[in-house]
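Posted in: Structural Biology > Protein-Ligand Complexes

Title: Requesting predicted complex, protoporphyrin IX containing FE in pocket

I'd be grateful if someone could produce the 3D structure tokens for the following input. Sequence and ligand are given below.
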Amino acid sequence: AGRNTRRLPPSHRGLPLIGNLHQVGALPHRALRALASSHGALDLLRLRLGQVPAVVASSPAAAAALMREHYGAFATRPYFRTAEILTYGLQDLRRPVTPLQAFNPVREREVAALVRTIRKLASSSGCGGAVDVSKALYGYANGVICRAVSGTGRLSREEEERRSELFRELIEENTALLGGFCVGDYFPSLAWADALSGAGARAWRNFRRWDELLEKVVQEHEARRVGDGDEEEDFVDVLLALQAAERRDDDGFELTRDAIKSLLADMFAAGTETSFIVLEWAMSELVRNPRTMHKLQHELRRDAPTDAAGANAVGPTTATYLRAVVKETLRLHPPVPLLLPRECMRDTTVLGFHVARGTRVFINAWAVGRDPASWSAPEEFRPERFLAGEDISEEEVDFLGAHFQFVPFGAGRRVCPGMQFGLATVELALASLVRLFDWELPGGAAPGELDMEEAPGLTTPKRVPLRLVAKPIGWEGEERA
Ligand code: HEM
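-- Reply #1 --
Done. Output follows.
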């Protein structure tokens, strides 16, 4: 077929110069689904973002076509200026396989610290006072990643805490930069404009601070490799061992120092915010749906706990319901609702539509998770849908990458490599918080009054931090007797 007969995806007429950028809005996943459905274009909607041609997929069929049928053409990330600076110019590094499932002792320590923090805040806030649950959860997610990346036992406790604080500051700056609008990304010919907006210089400044910190972390590990010592192996140890092995193999691939630092920076950026957001929404949905909360509490408390911090107390039945709650949270609130952008590598026909090389591709995981053709009662929080024998059983649907109506971690070649790590981080903390405390909204507000709005940006934490009254239940006291 000639060029003129190619069928292009439906589009919405944009404005001169900026194209459709003004329609993407503060909550792009919502604005883009509304735009797609008003054009009958849930499969593929064509957009122009500044000078960059883009398509957005909002149906499970389109998600499958892009991530399964045509994965070869859509597995590349586009070039982002800010991201390039922040990732040592190595955005598309071949990623070594890493054992991210491990690190359970790290998590158990951090969960115990989280429980202590909430107990302390609850008792100091007095009767009826509320705890900033969001802040505590963020500290937990950040702590898990910090310890898993750079280890424990090398620094004093105070130094460790100072370092966590510094990591947190740098991650927040990263999120602001990467989530932010960088003119040069959408107007390549206007890249100089970033100098005016300051994003370029700001990214460089942030990069130098990351580099200094990560260099120090790597050097500490080189000076004291695990083996003779008694510390656990952390992520830096894993990468250094891999580097040594690669050198021996001599297969042309070398894990350079910059590559190691780039991977570490990725872990922080990708691992903290996501796990925190899932926890924040899971707690919110549970408080808003007291029957679900009670059922989960009942199951967790029945499975006799072995210790008050609650780390090891999840038995197999409870694990099923806990997992269903987490799945339902991920369905309604995928923390990265448009996944990470891809770039089309060669002209491809997708579901009958022509997609040209160089097109930027977004997959609306938030929209497909609420697709009315794939889900019953798609807007309702009903973890039971993932259990066997329920009236609306969608039990077999999982997020491992084979069901394209449920892709909170992406799928195919670009699936999230931290899936198991993130799930373990979320489930362990959620189990402890639900088991060890009763939760209420402050001021006697009804569950339905909880604010459920999302903050603007490419990830979706809550707009208003979650504040709840936490009532510790005494395992050591009457509950045990
Ligand atoms: C429950 C928590 C998490 C969720 C929901 C999540 C979700 C995602 C999503 C949607 C993507 C993009 C996939 C795509 O575009 O197809 C992604 C990529 C990624 N995630 Fe996660 N993630 C989570 C936790 C983590 C953790 C804990 C880590 C690391 C410790 C991590 C590391 C990464 C990395 C390195 C990438 C980039 C992969 C690539 O570009 O090939 N994630 N994640």
